[in-house]
Amino acid sequence: MPEQLWLTEFLNHHLGAITTSLLRHLGIQPTYPDAPITNAVTMEFLVVFMLLAFFLAVRASLSVEKPGGLQHTVEALQELIAEQANGVIGHGYERYLPYAITLWYFILLSNLLGLVPGFESPTANPAVPLGCALVTFVYYHFHGIRTHRFHYIKQFIGPVGALAPLLLLIEIISHFARILSLTVRLYANMFAGDMVTLAFFSLVPVLVPVAFLGLHLFVSLVQTFIFVMLTLVYLGMAVSEEH
Known about the structure:
mainly alpha, 8 helices, globular
């Protein structure tokens, strides 16, 4: 049985039997029936709970006349992402802001959770970045089809009929490669960051690890920015009028 975080152990103790029963009813046989809830799943639920609490706090503190520091911070982040989306997507970018902003908060908080003792970054587990990448993949294709209908599918075969099968194969491979690219980039960086931080905390528990905590924070921000920016780029390519 894999090592469990204290919160994972708590959830498995109280909800493990129910979770195992539910999974079996769905035709899924958990690897560890006594501990079906993994650390990554626990951390994901924790991230969602923290984000709900955060947004409720933001909503309660909204004020037109006297905006507080929290409101200024959230508005500044929204303006930053909106500016990037406008530059990449152009006209109509507002439609895609909620997804991009939600993705930003979820990935950033997931990345930073590894800095908290007793927790770990869910994005250091390949299943979590893969889930984000798959949702992004479906999301931008959905909006591409919604915007261009049948013309969106035609872009995969190009203007030359004789080369259509080859171009179709290349396009399909390239689009699925985006899933791999988004997943591996985020997972590899966060997994490496967690391992380096843990190693130096074990070897030199004073002063030296502080530098690696700062590096982990920097990597978390950069990887969040890259993931969201690539999502906006893929959206822009899917809905652009050139298609």
